[in-house]
Every structure is written in C-alpha cells, then in structure tokens.
Amino acid sequence: MTALIDIDQLRTFIAIAETGSFTKAAEVVNKTQSAVSMQMKRLEERIDRAIFARDGRASKLTEDGARLLDYARRMVKLNMETIAAFSDEHLSGRVRLGVPDDYADRYLPEIMARFSRAYPGVELSVLCLPSVDLLECIDANEIDLAIITNCETRRASETFRQERLLWVTSNRHPTHMEERVPLALGRPSCAWRRTAIERLESVNRNFRVLYTSSNAGAVAAAVLSGLAVSVFPESALRPGMRVLTAAEGFPELPACRIGLVRNAHESSALADALAEHIISSLDNLSEAAQAAE
Fold first, then answer.
1. Do 180 and 153 contact (CB within 8 A), yes or no?
2. Which of 81, 107, 221, 256 is the most buried (most CB within 10 A)?
3. Do residues 154 and 260 share a domain?
4. CA-CA distance, 230 to 128, in Å (whole number)?
5. Domain check: are 124 and 103 in the same one?
C-alpha cells in the first residue's frame, strides 16, 4: 500500500516556503530547527524529490517544491475543515484575536460569521490595534492570534494573503495636485508610512505629513474630506476614494503581505481552529498561483 503524506510535514513545509527559512519556520510551527529539518528530509524521501535549494542563507523551492506547495496548501486546508466538521460541538471557551483596524471592517464580518456558525459555544474576543502593538500583545500572552501586515522580517508569520498598496485621495477634491502634498499616515513606526515617504522622496515630490493616526477610520476621514492623501491596501478602499497613479506623480508602492502570528506561549485547539478559518476565508495566495499557471 502506498504510504500517505504526513499533514504535519506539509504544514512545516508551507511555513518554510512562506518564511524562506528553516529557522523562522521553526518559530511558526513551534518546533526545534532540528525537528523541522528531519520532517523535510522525510518529506523529500516520501515524494522522492528535492524540494529545497540553498540560496545563501535562504531556502528556496525547487521546481518540484513549487509544484508541491499548492497541493500542500489544499491538503492542509481540507484536513482542518474535515476535523472541524466532526469536532465543532466539543469546542468551547474563549479565543482572542488581534487585527489592525485597516482590515477589521473588510475581514472581520466574514471571519466572525464563519467561525461563530462552526463553533457556536466559543466566545471570540477581538482587539483592534496596529500590527506593531499586536506583536507586543502576542509576546505578553494577551492574545492567541494576530493578523498583521507582514512588512518586517523580524518576526516569522504565516503569510496567506497579498494585496496592492495604493495611493488614495478624495474623488471630489484636487488635494493630490497641491504643490506640497499633504499626507495622512500612521504613526512613525508604521511600515506603510515609511514606504510612502521613501517613495515620494525617490521622485523628489514635495510633501508634508499633515495628519498622524493609528486609526484607519481617522486617516480615511482626512482623505475623504479632501484634507490629505494617504496609502491604503486595496481591500480597505472606501466609497469616495480615488486611486492615484505614477502618471500623477505617485510612484508605485510594494505589495502588502498579510500574515498570521500565533501565540507560542499557549497553543490551543480553539486558536488552531480560528487560524484555519481565517486562512480559508481570506487566502488568495494559492488562487493567485493557480491563475499564473
């Protein structure tokens, strides 16, 4: 009989593919680096293919590894859905989720609706803070999971979604045409703020930071009222906003990668179930890979 592929090995494989490192993946899956290496050795033996190629200190996928990645994502997702279908009634308690308010309006309704239907006996506690603050909450054991903007390399996360980051202005005001463009941005620690400023400086565009807030609603209000230009992920665009282009003097911004960070201090079946609901609800990476084939 043909041996089956181990789902836990596939989860580890996905983590390595997304972080580009065995060390960072070990943090994500809460295993030692030696255990991660052993799992990948066994996975390569199982499929009789090399799935990783060393590139300096990074671990990149071979052609066979790239083929396996899509199958792995689908198998892990189906495995968790199957388990949930037969174990929902046994789960109860409270699970704590952190999410930046940039994503709360767009993502939370679907996450909460699906999770509550599957686990009616579970209390979902939601905390809305910037990504940097959510990472501190994870370290302090104040939340179980955090959806974060994966702009920094200092923390391993499970990247599951990618979106365009866009310049936006009011569609009723010519704010973007001012000689010294007024900006509404997040706090100085915000990666989007730093990126926006760097891109404008690279094309010698005059600007001034007029409004600073970690609240997406406040930044959106400044944009919609015609007081400032800002940057938003594609999913967070609101009626009344207009996207600005390079032809208008606003250089293209890098893609925004969205990831999931788990609490390494305290793992739970509830947190795992919520993580799988988030990924299955919002994942667009595997779909994008299929479309590119």
1. no
2. 256
3. yes
4. 20
5. yes
Q: What is the CATH number of the domain that holds 184?
A: 3.40.190.10
Helix (H, G, I), strand (E, B), or coil: what is residue 95? strand
Tally Cβ neighbours within 10 Å of residue 35.
13
Give the pLDDT confidence of 30-72 residue by residue, as tens digits: 788 888 999 999 999 999 989 988 766 667 889 999 899 889 9
Could you tell me if 214 and 280 lie in one domain? no
Rounded to whole angstroms, the Cα distance separating 264 from 247 reads: 46
Domain hosting residue 180, numbered range:
165-248
What gap in Å lies between CA 169 and CA 245, rounded to an integer? Answer: 11
Tokens 């590139």 sit on residue: 55
Helix (H) or strand (E) holding 258: strand 256-262
Q: What whole-number distance in Å separates Cα of residue 256 and Cα of residue 241? A: 19
Kindly list the strands in the beta sheet with 230-233, ordered across the sheet, starting from the edge strand earlier in the chain. Answer: 230-233, 165-170, 241-244
Taking the model in full, what pTM does it have?
0.66
**What total number of domains does the chain contain?**
3
Across the strands, what pairs with 232?
166
197: DSSP letter: H
